[in-house]
Amino acid sequence: MPSTDDGSSAAAQAVVVAAPRGTTTLADNPRTREGRAAERVPDRGRAARQAQMRAHNLSVTLAQVVDAQSPPSRAQIAASTGLARGTVTGLVDLLIESGIVRELDPVVVARAGRPAVPLEPTPGRVAGVGMEVNVDYLGLRAVDLAGGVLVETVERADLRGSDPDAVLDRLANLAAPVLASLAADGVRVAGTALAVPGLVDRITGPLRYAPNLGWRDVDVVGRLAAHPVLADLPPRVANEANLAARAEAHARRGRVAPSFLYVSGEVGVGGALVLDGEIFLGRHGWSGEIGHVVVDGGPDGTRPVSLEQRAGQDAIAQAAGLAPGAPFADVVAALAAGDPRARDAVRGAARWLGLAVATVANVVDVSEVVLGGTFGLVFDEVQDVVREALADRVIFADWSAPSVRRSAAGDYPAMTGGALAVLRTVVSDPTPWFAATS
Q: Measuring CA to CA, how many Å separate 32 from each of 14, 408, 411?
C-alpha cells in the first residue's frame, strides 16, 4: 500500500548537517566499501522533494480523469500533461489500487497497437456534500467524483426573517438521513460545503450579512460544527452565486477554461465572475453582488433603486399581478399560458437586468453572460432583451459583443458547486484517500 504522507513531515525532518570545511567524509572516498555504502544512503531532502513531486503528479493525473469531458487513456493523459508514459502508468495504477479511478473496456484505435483503456472516476466511492440555505428552501446534494448525484433532499420553506439557530438545526437534521444513506452504501464523505445568499467573509469565516434572510454576523460553521450530525464534517461556507458559478464552470469545462459573468435570479439577484475556470472572489470574498447595483433613481431621483428591487422574484411576481411571495413557478405558468401581464413583467425585469449587466461588462470586460436561476427558467423571454442592452450600452460591443447563454448547471447549482468545491480537495491531494477507500 503506498504511503499516505503528503511530504510535509518528511520535509520537516530533512535536516542536512554539512561537514566542517576541509573535513573528508566517507562519501568523499567512493573507492572504499564504506564510501560506496555512504553513497547509497538516501538524501532525506531529496526524498522529501520526490514525495512532494509524486503527490503533485498524482493530483495532476487525477484532475485529468475527473475534469475530462470523455474518459481519457493513459496515453492521452501523458500527452496532455507532458509526463512520461511510464510515470503516468505508475500513477494511474496507484489511483486504481486506491479505488478512486477505474478502467473501462478497451477501445480499439485506428492506428496499430494495443487498444486504449479509458479511465474514469469510480462512481460511489468518494463524495462531497453541498448544502444550501436560501430564502425559500434548504437542502443537500451529494455528488461523487464521477459527477453523479448520489442522494439529495430539498425542503421548501419561507426563511425570510428566520432565526439562524433554528434554521441551521433544521439543516443539520435534514443532513442526518443523507449522511446515513451514504455511509450505508459505503461512500466516504470528503466534507461538506454550505451555500448562503449573502456576504461570507473568506478571511475570518462568518456570514456577515444575508439581507433576505435577515441574518447578520452569524458564525455558521461554529453553530453547525456544534451539532452532533455535522461535528465531524463542519462545512466550508460560501456565497450561493459563487458556488453556483463553480458548478457552471464545471459544466462548461473543455480544452479552454471558461470565463464568464454568471447571474443568478432568486428572491435576490446574485452574480459571480469566472476567469479561466476560477471564481474571482475579491479581497474579502464579496465580489459579484450585482443585485445591489443601482439601476434607477426612483420617482424623484433621490431614492436609489437596486436591480434586485426591479428584477428579483418578488418584483417580477408583483408586476405580473401575483400575490406577494408567490412561487416563481406561478410566473412561469402564467407566461406559458400567454398571460400578457406576466410577459411584460418578465421582459421589464430583463431590461433592468440588461442595464446592470452592461454596467458590469464595461468594468470587467466579459465576453459571455450566463443566466441562471429564475432568469434561466424564462431565458427565451429575456435573452434578446439582455442581448440588445449589451449591444447598445457596452462600449466594445461593436468589436466583441458579449454573448448571452442559459445556465448549463441544472437545478440547485449552488448545492452542486458546494459538493464540487469539497471534491476539489480530494483532487488536490488524493494520497490521504488511498487507505480510506481501499
A: 26, 69, 71
Q: What is the pTM of this model?
A: 0.83
User: CA 388 to CA 301: how far, in whole Å?
Assistant: 25
**Amino acid (1-letter code) at residue 88:** V
The tens digit of pLDDT for each residue in 223-246 reads 999 999 999 999 999 999 999 999
The angle formed by the CA atoms of residues 103, 59 and 16, to the nearest 5 degrees, is 130
- Beta strands across the sheet bearing 137-144: 149-156, 137-144, 126-133, 188-196, 236-239
Q: Which residues contact 125 (CB under 8 A, 6 or more apart)?
A: 99, 100, 144, 145, 186, 187, 188, 437
pLDDT in tens, 194-209: 999 999 988 777 999 9
User: Please, are residues 156 and 147 in contact by the beta-carbon 8 Å criterion?
Assistant: no
In the chain, the N- to C-terminal Cα span, in Å, equals 9
Alpha-carbon dihedral angle through residues 306, 309, 312, 318, given to the nearest 10 degrees: -160
